[in-house]
Amino acid sequence: MKRTSCSGCGHVELDTFLDLGDSPIADAYTATPDEPVERYPLEVAVCAKCRLVQLLEVVDHDVLFGTGYSFYSSASPPLSAYHAAYARDVHARHPGLVARGVLEIGCNDGDLLRHFSDVTAVGVDPAAGPADVARRRGLEVLVRPFGLQAAHDLRDRRGRQGVVIANHVLAHVADVADVLAGIRTLLADDGIAMVEVQYLPDLLVNNAFDLVYHEHRNFFSLSSLEQAALRHGLHIVDAELTDRQGGSLRATLATTPSPNVRVDTIRMSERWLNQWSAYESMQGRAERVRARLWDVIAAELHSGRTLAGYGAPAKATTLLAFCGMGQETIPWVVDTTAAKQGRHIPGTGIPIVAPDAAPHADTYLLLSWNYARQIIRNNPGHRWLTPIPAPVIL
Ligand SMILES: [Zn+2]
Fold first, then answer.
1. Which residues have a beta carbon within 5 Å of ligand 1, which is an ion?
2. Percent of the chain as helix, strand, coil, to the nearest 5
3. Are the C-beta atoms of residues 179 and 147 closer than 8 Å to each other?
4. If pLDDT is split at 50, 70 and 90, which confidence band does 337 have?
5. 20 to 30 A from 347, CA-CA: which of 27, 49, 230, 298?
């Protein structure tokens, strides 16, 4: 289904600036190399009114999230460490609010929420598999999508919350306005909502077009998040930029405005996003990455080097589909996630193998480029080809 109005403000003028063609559901890893996959358009547009960047194609929820593969936060050591530090920070900065109840939207397997298990903590997540894991950890989890209706039910049962956390949730919902209305409904008048989203300017500046896939329905700047939140009486009272997922924005929302120099600074730095020129060059830059990647790979093969991939994140599906690369170019990819091993990157036939089961390759295309530093440090002696922001041999 193609979106005809803005997810944040309902405006009908959506200007398309990036078309990556048709791509499979990014994490629908296939059991066999030639398993047929459905492809859906990957077109990205910006709302002419509130500047929220969004995917035009809204793939049905069951198709998108019924892939049989669920992401488990705990399976990623860097993410677990990030969660531990995040929780320490919230405990230290807002002890009084934490004591009055913590709700995490999109709690996954409870990897973050478990750090709040000493207080009244509850999670909401539509994915049953990860929610089961969270429950086995002794956490209370409601298995359902979050929106205004869920918020009313929760408020009736548990009252308003001191802290609501929604990390990397707003990007994935079809109706941003409904989730923000739910957060406002559940939040105590003096409570805070902590919202983390992938940061659109980083995506634009880094040419990170592979972060576009069907699960990523919305891409936020502070300004567009602010406009969407204000419609529901939520104000951004603090914000910082972090390096998670190729660049993220962590915003604190409250029901009353409060001036904050960090918010002002980020907002000022985003003025270029009001110009069409911020978006219009993205298509050409994605196409140049594709052409250059083929050139570098051809040079590697011409020099007699063998090639494989490293990492099978969702963004690998977008990159490989857009570049038209399959197993004839990348014979296998290495990935440390057990649930992906033995499966294939959708639409490519490329098998995903465990590091200790992988044959030798001379050069690795680094598909998990956002973890480049850790991966290169942990795998010394390899030759690396990073695709983003521009293909280069390290
Ligand atoms: Zn809008």
1. 6, 8-9, 11, 47, 49-50, 52
2. 40, 25, 35
3. yes
4. confident
5. 298
